[in-house]
Amino acid sequence: DSLSGGERAKVMLSRIIVQAEECDLLVMDEPTSHLDIDTVEWLEDYLLDSHCAVLVISHDRYFLDKIATRMLEIEHGKSREYKGNYSDFIMKKMLDLERMRKEYQHYMSEKRHQESIAKQMYIDNPFLTVHKTRQKMIDRMEEKEKPEKMEEITVKIQAAHKSGKNVLMTKDLSVDYSGKMILEHVDIDVHKGDKIGIFGANGQGKSTLLKAILEEIPSKGELWMAPGAKIGYYSQNHEGLDLKLSAEEQILTVIGRERRGEARQMLARFLLFGDDVERPMSTLSGGQRARVAMCLLLLDETNLLILDEPTNYLDIPAKHAIEEALVEYDGTVITVTHDRYYLDTVCTKMIEVKNHRAICFSGTYSEMKGRKNTKEIVMDADEYRVLAPFTNWVTGKKYVKGDRVLVAPADQKSFQWAMDQGKLKKTGGRQRKKVNVLDAPKQGS
Q1: Which residues pair with 280 in a beta bridge?
Q2: 394 pLDDT exceeds 70?
Q3: Taking every pair of C-alpha atoms in the chain, what is the biggest distance, in angstroms?
Q4: CB < 8 Å & 24+ apart, contacts of 8-15
Q5: Main-chain phi, psi angles of 333, to 5 degrees
Q6: Phi, psi of 160, deg, nearest 5
Q7: pLDDT tens digits, 219-265
Q8: Taking the chain, what is the end-to-end CA distance rounded to the nearest angstrom?
Q9: Range 206-215 average pLDDT
């Protein structure tokens, strides 16, 4: 019981790895939950080298991109299989949905047309049976499946004003616990609008750093917070939730009991409806509690969000919604996370906590770790105008009608389906654009 979630996960993983040496099929349910990034990347390499087949349930998008060769999506009580990894699946699913939508529209249009003809035949001569023949033809038409409407979490985070250029600074910050040094000589300089991701191995002091910043635990050295900072804090353990209350009651304790309708609207934006908002939160799933906690976070206007593992327990669509809202947020964000996709999508600066120190880097996780040996080059890019809304599911970015998009040869693939569906139109303009491409190994290396 004294082990952390990450330590327990490593113990279970060790047992499974021993068993895997003798098995033909390895079944894993969310194996990367609570694991730090180094352990996840070790697991990825192990599975790729393993002789056995692997069946895995996971919401870890980088993990699925690395190890998956086939994807099975379970949605609305149905399953659909796609060849390739997670990124391939997203591309193919968007194409499938567009194809199904067009086929269904064509089917319904033709059905209405034939029904109109049959009706007119009956009006013209009700004593003939020709209209019945037409109706039989309609009944024999191959019915096309109506695409399920994709329910989306809608999140908008309002930033409070009056935040100066400098938000937070630490100098020679140190934290010790019972005589054991956790952090030392930590120098951080946070400016307005920074989106900072903090990562590192379990037990290195990431959450401790957040608690020191929030002054929940004592520290030594210098810590300065802007007087105008309005902080919103999200805890991975959801300590702010009273699990005896329902989600609705929890919201009403903050906004006032007379605003019940407004509370329901807020929860509905996070896809929480009916019985789920009325029963005690102790009976909700981890993902549902996470959405309630995120809803609470958004009740107040803030200009500094401090988030501890905000994507834990969330499914992939919910992660995309939160990430997109944070990208558009005008305030400052400091996040502890093991989610590499989040670190690349939301964060523009990294802090790696290692050996009691904080190593700072300006850029994404992939840029800091040199994933895929990428290099930045400048390419000519065609300018496109967005004709219809769409989401680039590789980056998670949404585009609306009228947006201008620069597409270089290196990122053509991620926009190809939108082009094929007529959602993008070339304007004729061209600009130079920085892109990351694979750095081919040198000959003889």
Answers
A1: 246
A2: no
A3: 98
A4: 8/34, 9/33, 9/34, 9/35, 10/35, 10/39, 10/202, 13/39, 13/43
A5: -130, 130
A6: -70, 155
A7: 999 999 999 899 999 988 888 888 999 999 999 988 888 888 888 88
A8: 49
A9: 92
Residue type, 56: V
- Dihedral sign for Cα atoms in the order 167, 172, 178, 181: positive
Q: Which residues, including other chains, have CB under 8 Å from residue 392's CB and lie 6 or more apart?
A: 398, 399, 414, 415, 418
3-state secondary structure 257-299: HHHHHHHHHHHHCCCCCCHHHHCEHHHCCHHHHHHHHHHHHCC
Q: Which two tokens stand for residue 425?
A: 């139109």
Q: In what order do the strands lie in the sheet with 231-234?
A: 231-234, 304-308, 332-336, 195-199, 349-354, 357-362
Assess whether the region 5-76 and the region 166-369 belong to the same CATH fold.
yes
Distance CA 281, CA 284 (A): 5
Alpha helices (H) along 5-146: 5-20, 37-49, 61-67, 86-124, 130-139
Q: How far is residue 301 from each of residues 249, 298, 329, 365, measured CA to CA in Å?
A: 21, 7, 11, 28
| Chain-centre distance for alpha carbon 388 | 23
Partners of residue 224 on adjacent β-strands: 169
Measured distance CA(108)–CA(120) in Å, rounded:
18
Helix, coil or strand: residue 9 = helix
| pLDDT of residue 73 exceeding 90 | yes
The fold adopted by the segment(s) 166-369 is Rossmann fold (3.40.50)
Q: How far is CA 127 from the centre of its chain?
A: 62
For strands 220-225 and 166-177, give the pairing. antiparallel
Burial (Cβ within 10 Å: 0-12, 13-18, ≥19) of residue 390 = buried
List the domain boundaries for the chain.
5-76, 88-139, 166-369, 371-438
Indicate the CATH number of 5-76 among 3.20.20.60, 3.40.50.300, 2.70.70.10, 3.40.1280.10: 3.40.50.300
Residue 58 makes CB contacts below 8 A (sequence gap 6+) with: 28, 30, 31, 32, 64
Q: Which of 256, 219, 214 is nearest to 231 (CA)?
A: 214
Burial (0-12, 13-18, 19+ Cβ within 10 Å), 120: exposed
Average pLDDT over all residues of the chain? 86
Angstrom distance (rounded) from CA 68 to CA 54 = 9
- Three-state DSSP state, 101: helix
- The predicted-structure confidence for 313-350, as pLDDT tens digits, reads as follows 888 888 988 898 898 888 999 999 999 999 999 999 99
Residues in the chain: 445
The whole-angstrom separation of Cα 213 and Cα 414 is 39
